[in-house]
Each structure stands twice: as structure tokens, then as C-alpha cells.
Write a structure and sequence with these properties.
The protein is mostly helical. 57% of the residues lie in helices and 0% in strands. It has helices spanning 15-28, 30-39, 51-59, 65-79, 84-96, 102-117, 122-127, 130-138, 145-155, 167-176, 185-193, 199-213. Helix 3 (51-59) crosses helix 9. It is globular.
């Protein structure tokens, strides 16, 4: 009889529930188990929920994580605090001066404006149902399915999220599952469906594999904290 995955995961991942999910996945899937045997339990890779997390996800779309990190740090150093008020006051042209494209600057400025006007309440998003919260975030210009998935996975720490179209996860799936080709979005979703309700944990295991295969794991100690480098690979189009 094959091991059964839990049907009652917590609403929010903790270190203890991440460990539980990883063990259940290892028991149910020998390929993930082999990654865990080789690398150990993956980091949480968490971020504090809120405006700064969403802004950083926008910056990470369609560019290297190093480039996004540089933009974020330049902006943070200038503003002192990454708040909606500070970003809104910069205006689009001011944000462009820190390396943001006009489109991304518009998205970041618009996100700040929505929060300041009260049209977007991220506390209500976090506390409400995930279906409603996702619809709210998907209604914000600049936030597509991948971006919303990453926010729910890393900032809100939901245990069962699979980031749609993540390139690093596609590469890791091909390697771990020994596929001939890079799996497309629908195939990724089908492969990941067997890991419910711990798909967020499976994603972390696969990100760890992706980094290790490229000589970038284990992560530096400072990447284990909040607001840190992320392991994922951004989508190549609308995120």
C-alpha cells in the first residue's frame, strides 16, 4: 500500500509543518525522497507579507534575480523604508531612475496607489479565503498567476501552491523525473498534482535541487531569513 499524504494540512506553513510535509513527500515519492536524502530539508524561503513583498515580486518578473535584487536594494537604500507612501511619492519617472522599466515603474506606483486609496487591503487578502484573495490580487495590474502564486507560497506560506510557469521548477522536474523534454505548464501541473496538499513543500525541494545542480546550494546563511534572495526562476512572459 502506498503512503498517503495528509488531507488536513495547516493554513500556513511553519518549520514543523514543512518538516512533516517533506517527510510525507519523501515516503510517497522516491524521487523527492532522493533529493531530500542528498540535500536535507529545504529552507522556508519566506518573506513578510505586505507591500514590499509584492513590489519585489514585480521587480523579479522577466529579469534575472540578481538584476531585480540590485534594483530593490538601490530603491530601498534611497527610500529608507519600502512603504506605499514612499514609493507613491517617487512617481513613475522617479522609479525609472533606479533601473525600473516604465511599465514596471507604473505597476509599482499603481500598487502603492491602490493600497493608499484603500482599494487594496493586503491584511484582508491574507485573512480571507484564498480564492477571493487571488481574484483580488489578479485584478491588480502587474500581478499575473505566477506572481500571485509566489506571494501565496512565500509570503502567506500556504502549503499547497504550485507556481504556474516557473522556469526553475520546470528544469528541476525534468532532471528529477528524468523527462526527455522540459515540461510545459499543463504537464507541470499534472506532475505536481500528486503532491497535494504539500505542493509548496515539493516546490521548495525542487528549487533546492535546481540550485544544487548549478553549484548554488546550500544557500548562504543570509538567504535563510525574510526578504532574501529567492530560488525560483521567473516566467518568460506575462507573470
Amino acid at each position: 500500500m502506498e503512503p498517503q499524504l495528509s488531507t488536513n494540512p495547516p493554513r500556513r506553513l511553519t518549520q514543523a509543518s514543512l518538516s512533516k510535509g517533506a517527510q510525507q513527500l519523501a515516503d510517497a515519492d522516491s524521487d523527492l525522497g532522493a533529493v531530500l536524502d542528498r540535500l536535507g530539508e529545504p529552507p522556508m524561503w519566506g518573506r513578510r507579507p505586505g507591500f514590499s513583498a509584492l513590489l519585489r515580486i514585480i521587480l523579479e518578473q522577466q529579469v534575472s534575480l540578481a538584476a531585480a535584487r540590485t534594483m530593490y536594494r538601490r530603491l530601498s537604500c534611497h527610500l529608507g523604508a519600502m512603504t506605499p507612501e514612499a514609493v507613491y511619492a517617487m512617481q513613475v519617472r522617479g522609479l525609472q531612475g533606479f533601473g525600473l522599466t516604465r511599465q514596471k515603474a507604473g505597476y509599482c506606483h499603481g500598487l502603492a496607489a491602490r493600497i493608499l486609496s484603500g482599494n487594496l487591503d493586503l491584511t484582508l487578502v491574507a485573512r480571507g479565503s484564498d480564492d477571493v484573495g487571488r481574484r483580488v490580487l489578479l485584478g491588480v495590474p502587474g500581478l499575473g498567476p505566477w506572481s500571485v502564486d509566489i506571494y501565496y507560497l512565500m509570503a502567506l506560506r500556504r502549503p499547497d501552491v504550485w507556481p504556474q510557469g516557473d522556469l526553475a521548477l520546470a528544469s528541476a522536474l525534468r532532471e528529477v523525473k528524468r523527462l526527455d523534454d522540459l515540461p510545459m505548464k499543463d504537464e507541470q501541473r499534472a506532475l505536481a498534482s500528486v503532491w497535494t496538499p504539500w505542493r509548496s513543500v515539493a516546490a521548495r525541494i525542487l528549487w533546492a535541487h535546481y540550485l544544487a545542480a548549478r553549484g548554488q546550494y546550500p544557500p548562504r546563511p543570509d538567504t535563510m531569513r525574510f526578504e532574501t534572495d529567492s530560488p525560483y526562476g521567473c516566467r518568460s512572459n506575462a507573470s
